[in-house]
Amino acid sequence: MFQFSTRAEGLAVDVTHTPVLTERVVELLTPAMQAPGAIVVDTTVGLGGHSLALLEAFPRARLIGLDRDPRALAYSRHRLADLGTRVDLVHMVYDQLPDALSGLGVAEVNGILFDLGVSSMQLDMDERGFAYSRDAPLDMRMDQERGPTAADVLNTYDVDSLTRILRNYGEERFARRIAQAVVSARQTAPFTTSARLVDLIRDAIPAAARRTGGNPAKRTFQALRIEVNTELDVLERALPAAFDALAVGGRLVVLSYHSLEDRLVKRSLGPRAVPAVPPDMPVIPDEARPTLRWLTRGAEPASDQEIERNARAGSVRLRAVERVAAEPGRAQNPTGGVR
């Protein structure tokens, strides 16, 4: 567990941060990280918990860290400052990974980690508006310097649009009832803070449905967060781009926190694990052979011991893959890294 209190770059933070499944992440990436100068990418640096663990586990490696949240990058830059030239931190969303690598003169990398969802800092800072358990401004932007807020979505989307995002991104059975209630309530006053929305959701959902499944606002808040940050669209672009950046023998690990993310990981990477030929073809040409092999059997949950240490690991699902061949016609540097 990491307790972090700093005023790095003029921004105060005081949170308790426990990275999820750190030992398993390190174990899966280790075979790909043995060469001197190997490069690992943490696509969601957050407060740097996984990044620091990777740098300590692989003392000859270089780490490239991305995050869309400038506050998170400021804190991680402060935390990792002693590691100097081994660390490059970049303010980018992870679907911009190719641009980040190109800007650093890196052709390919040996390991990549995606730790999806909301960081500890974002959850624990009330003004970010991610937590439905506390009254806070309805922001939910991972990068507070750009884009519409959750309040903007609630106050401007029509019933059909709100229903769509609540149903598709929150898997909310009562999506239309909640959407209709939101549109009706905002005629009196626009939504600005979370407590009013939580109360509205509770009133809109039948009493019987409120007795199970935890806080009934959970699904709506998840849907709003995904919409505000275009999380699934970004992830759908990022996964193939990340795999394409791997050297042969490189490994990619993804930590997902809800079924929508996990299904997208499986759907995006899965086709690369099977030959690109009809199933009854007796001979598989080299150019049609799989470029990926799964390192995990399905999606791995956290152990009971991990969840006891870190409650936020309760919903995690881990998948990992290894690049076993280059794409046809693509020259690869067998040692990975800069070339």
Helix content: 25-40%
Mean pLDDT: 87
What's the β-strand tally? 10
SSE arrangement, N to C? EEHEHEHEHEHHHHHHHEHEEHE
Number of helices: 13
Form type: globular
Outline the biggest β-sheet: 8 strands, mixed
How much of the sequence is in beta strands?
Answer: 15-25%
In the predicted model, the low-confidence regions spanning at least 5 consecutive residues are: 1-10, 329-339
Topology:
Layout: E1 2-6, E2 13-17, H1 22-29, E3 39-42, H2 49-57, E4 62-67, H3 70-79, E5 87-91, H4 97-103, E6 109-115, H5 120-124, H6 150-156, H7 159-170, H8 175-185, H9 194-204, H10 218-229, H11 231-244, E7 246-256, H12 259-269, E8 292-294, E9 300-301, H13 304-309, E10 317-323
Helix pairs in contact: 7-8, 7-10, 8-9, 11-12
Q: Could you characterize what this model shows?
A:
The chain is of the alpha/beta class and 339 residues long. The chain is built from 13 helices and ten strands. The longest helix is centred in the last third of the chain and has 14 residues, at 231-244.
